[in-house]
Fold this sequence. Notes:
By secondary structure, the protein is of the alpha/beta class. The chain has 15 helices and 21 strands. It has helices at 3-15, 37-45, 80-99, 121-134, 154-162, 177-182, 189-201, 220-231, 264-280, 297-303, 344-352, 366-381, 386-392, 401-408, 433-437, and strands spanning 18-19, 53-59, 61-62, 74-75, 105-113, 136-147, 167-173, 206-213, 237-242, 283-286, 290-293, 308-310, 313-315, 321-325, 330-333, 336-340, 358-363, 383-385, 416-419, 422-425, 452-453. The strands form six sheets. A nine-stranded mixed beta sheet has the order 10-11-9-8-7-6-5-2-14, with helices on both faces. Strands 15-16-17 form a three-stranded antiparallel beta sheet, covered by helices on one side. A hairpin with a 2-residue loop joins strand 12 and strand 13 (313-315). Helix 3 packs parallel to helix 4 (121-134). The longest helix has 20 residues, at 80-99. The radius of gyration is 22 Å and the shape is globular.
Amino acid sequence: MRPAIAMKNALHEKYDLRLPRYTSYPTAPHFTPTVNGEVYRRWLADLDPAQPLSLYFHVPYCEEMCWFCGCNTKITKHYAPVGSYVEVLRTEIGNVIAALPGRYQVSHIHFGGGSPTIMKGDDLRAIMDNIRAGYDVLPDAEIAIEMDPRTANRDLMDAMRDCGFTRSSIGIQDFNPVVQKSVNRVQPFEMVAQVIADLRARKMTGINVDLMYGLPYQTTETLIETVDQTVTLNPDRLSVFGYAHVPWMKKHQNLIPEHALPGTTERWAQYETIQKRLCEHGYVAIGLDHFARADDAMAIAMQAGLLHRNFQGYTTDRAEALIGMGPSAISSLPQGYAQNDPALGRWKRAVVDGVLAIEKGIAIDNEDRLRRDIINELMCHLSVDVADICQQHGTSPDRFTPEMDRIRAMMVDGIVKVNDANITITESGRPLVRAVCAAFDTYLNHAHGRHSQAV
């Protein structure tokens, strides 16, 4: 075995841990029922009306279950439950507005799922009317939606145009027909290309696409083909996610043929192959798993040190508060995190009763904020000056001596470089950035973690 390959295999074995994706800190497994609707109501009442908000809306329906899915969603072939859901969501919008101490500006709006494209165009118009009635949506606000090409239709896209949507996130995952069939998501290249053409014809030019590695029957060769096909669609951003096989949490993942899943070594090779190919096509690597054209706002934010990370992944959204609506949606406020009840029936009953439908969450303290800032810098910029972050928080970097010792031990593996209190993750260490972040995570218990693979 060649030395370089042997080194990588050793790293696979050493760092093949179950780790959080660090879209928050503390992460969702540590939320508890001590944060409920009344706590959340107090948090909302304390928000600064001078600070713009970010809004997230979860649509928990799909027409078909993708077997790789880790989202909170239900399957329906009928519109009736979707229409009923939209009415309750509009009620929740009103409940949240009533809990706020003033009229707020909004800088970002994001519809996720599930499949928001399962809604009708008039549903989207009605929701946006409610939003604009209760908030001042800034003229340059980003308004984004996740799209399933199989259910995206021109009626919905007309509504998106009319409502001022600026960005669409298209789920591709893989174009190989064998891989698509193995995960129950069959969508030919031509279907995706037509959806993107229809969006651009309506002057909605902000196009994200999602790709995945670690799926059944994928190889580095087939992934190169998918990347090359995807690039012909000229997206300005791409997200490249490793499939998280967690059948103990998502029972439908038991339908995935496990014997066809790549091992850790192959997953690493797939990750590196996609990254290299996208960079050859002129895309800039963003953090762990995003890519953007050099002139895109996300790449510019990264260069300026302003990139951020939230429950939608990497973002240019710097809003102090993100308010989530819909079952399982998570809100991020200065005081902590609050998650809506994921059970659709309970969520509906609470909303109709005028209750803020929070099931759990976590209040954060100054220690959490300090560690969150360090982790965010590492995840977004692959480097952090721990002393500088500590100075901003009015504390000494000496408090992190044990963490810095653990990170210095990673230097022998070529994952990081450490200069005094400055940590820089190397290019070869990029896929292991979560392992570096984990050194600062006081909540993490590797022995009982139920997270996704680090690579």
